[in-house]
Amino acid sequence: xxxxEWLLDADPSIRWQVMRDLLDEPADRVAAERARVAREGWGRxxxxxxxxxxxxxxxxxxxxGDRRGTHWTLFNLLRLGASPDDPAVRAAxxxxxxxxxxxxxxGLPYFHGEVEECVNGGVLALAAYFGELGVGSDRxxxxxxEEQLDxxxxxxxxxxxxxxxxxxxxxxxxxxxxxxxxxxxDPPPAIAEARRRGEEYLLExxxxxxxxxxxxxxxxxxxxxxxxxxxxxxxxxxxxLRDVGGRPDPRLGEALDVVRSQRRDDGRWPAGRPWRGxxxxxxxxxxxxxxxxxxxxxxxVLRWAEAEASPSGSASTG
Length: 318
Fold this sequence. Notes:
The chain is mostly helical. It is built from 13 helices and four strands. It is globular, with a radius of gyration of 19 Å.
């Protein structure tokens, strides 16, 4: 079985993204495959695990690294591509909107966010994806714009006095701001500028090195795990920049080489070391085994980078 056949021999959540991002299938065929995500496989299983109050795992986030909470389950549904218009998904989101609150933050409704930058970036991305933008997301955007640090990024420890950005917090915020910017009719220009500065923070560091010394910031940035949760890694950052579009920045060269270096002789990428925490069920292969998620994400990143970098490539718009 070649790599493409192997990728297609998978859950609908992988199949539809392969059809869209690697095979350029017609939009109607992609949409039909994507519609299956909420009706069968992993997507259906996750939707069915929601309780009557609107929670997954009995918590809005998850205590002590538990990944079964509402926040992470919604993110899994987003990454799987469950259609926000599917009736079962729509009903689940309405239960979240009407019933889930942040217990440690004055009982704020879930889509109004809490206080940490990385969490609020995630809530913003989810609100944009599932069609729940409003007063809460406006509050989040205002906070995130105010909380951007002088070096261009964000850090959840800013409230404790940190003046240096975190790769982890920054990627979460960038994903949220991009989703919001695309979802509203007339986004404030300050959002595009904040994103530009945040992306520059990562690019100045080649996506994984210290600006001061050139050393690798953290070895875990080279570990490609799916789902990534709040954690940063090079492949996640490259996939974000691919989604933004346009011609790849020359400073991505080393990060792209990191991705290429992990490709196995059979053309597949291995699963990374999974992040700690309880899950309902695994969405990826065991560590070291061939990973469809990493292979899909790596191939679409390299396809974008190599096509856009070639003389005949035409820059897309973000």
